[in-house]
From TrEMBL:
Residues 1-22 form the signal peptide. It comes from Phoenix dactylifera (Date palm). InterPro entries: Peptide_deformylase (IPR023635), Peptide_deformylase_sf (IPR036821). SUPFAM superfamilies: Peptide deformylase (SSF56420). Removes the formyl group from the N-terminal Met of newly synthesized proteins. It comes from the Eukaryota. It holds the Pfam family Pep_deformylase. Belongs to the polypeptide deformylase family. This is Peptide deformylase.
Length: 272
């Protein structure tokens, strides 16, 4: 997700930074406070019903061997580059990760490097051409400030009924910003960089960035969630990106906003 913040809850970095350093709330334009809990890496108890359900599902459906990312899937070339719309990589299936090694750490480090360099606050693996369930973010958007978050194989357990409209940008859509409505808070689970499982409640900007990046891992792009009117307001920008792709690759654009059919709502529930 791109860093530029404007309109809607006009959250300034100075408002976000204390939040990420452990204070519990920050104001929104609605005059209400959004709470934020620090990320913790608490292992999930073996008796957790969620773990049991997951274990049963594993036995019941016996996943294919290619269910997890292979070494080749996680292979990358430095420096990483941002994949822009309409590259089909952004719509590809992203595999879950079960190898937590030095290569993964290096990938994460390079993703953070690229995110800061491109003025981002969140970045997903498919956006650098790696089709795996991995995202990094830091709502502060500056190295050494805020908190660097790494989520591997994230799942959404719960979303709030209350939704918020927010002006989003995306590194895969340079210079395009538009309003997207999303739940105000989410309860999520994931693995950390060492493979440890954790759960966390997110609200405010971290909830917004997480949901944007989580969508990328499902092959969903931010304009899939825009209203018709909002989508209309960026139509020409999307067409310009499609033409840029065609002239760069010599290939027809794999998708076209002029033939766009709204994608099915993403369930938002997946397996860790
Ligand atoms: Zn994005």
């Amino acid at each position: 997700m791109a860093a530029r913040l404007r309109a809607l809850p006009a959250i300034s970095l100075s408002a976000v930074l204390p939040l990420l350093h452990g204070r519990s709330s920050f104001p929104t334009t609605a005059g209400k406070s959004l709470s934020f809990r620090r990320f913790s890496s608490r292992p999930v108890a073996r008796s957790s019903p969620l773990v049991e359900v997951s274990a049963q599902a594993r036995r019941g459906f016996s996943f294919q061997e290619d269910d997890f990312a292979s070494t080749a899937d996680l292979c990358f070339e430095s420096p990483l580059k941002i994949v822009e719309y309409p590259d089909p990589i952004l719509r590809a299936t992203n595999k879950r990760i079960n190898t937590f090694d030095e290569n993964l750490k290096k990938l994460v480090e390079e993703m953070f490097d690229l995110m800061y360099k491109t003025d981002g606050i969140g970045l997903s693996a498919p956006q650098v051409g790696i089709s795996v369930q991995l995202m990094v973010f830091n709502p502060a958007g500056e190295r050494g400030e805020g908190e660097q978050i790494v989520l591997v194989n994230p799942v959404v357990y719960k979303t709030s009924k209350r939704t918020i409209l927010y002006n989003e940008g995306c590194l895969s859509f340079p210079e395009i910003y538009a309003d997207v409505e999303r739940p105000a808070s989410v309860k999520v689970g994931a693995r950390d960089i060492t493979g440890g499982r954790f759960k966390v409640n997110l609200s405010g900007l971290p909830a917004r960035v997480f949901q944007h990046e989580f969508d990328h891992l499902q092959g969903t792009l931010f304009f899939d969630r825009m209203t018709e009117d909002v989508l209309e307001s960026i139509r020409s920008d999307l067409k310009a990106l499609e033409m840029k792709y065609e002239s760069r690759t010599g290939l027809p654009s794999p998708e076209s906003i002029d033939q766009y059919e709204r994608r099915k709502e993403v369930a938002g529930f997946a397996r860790t």
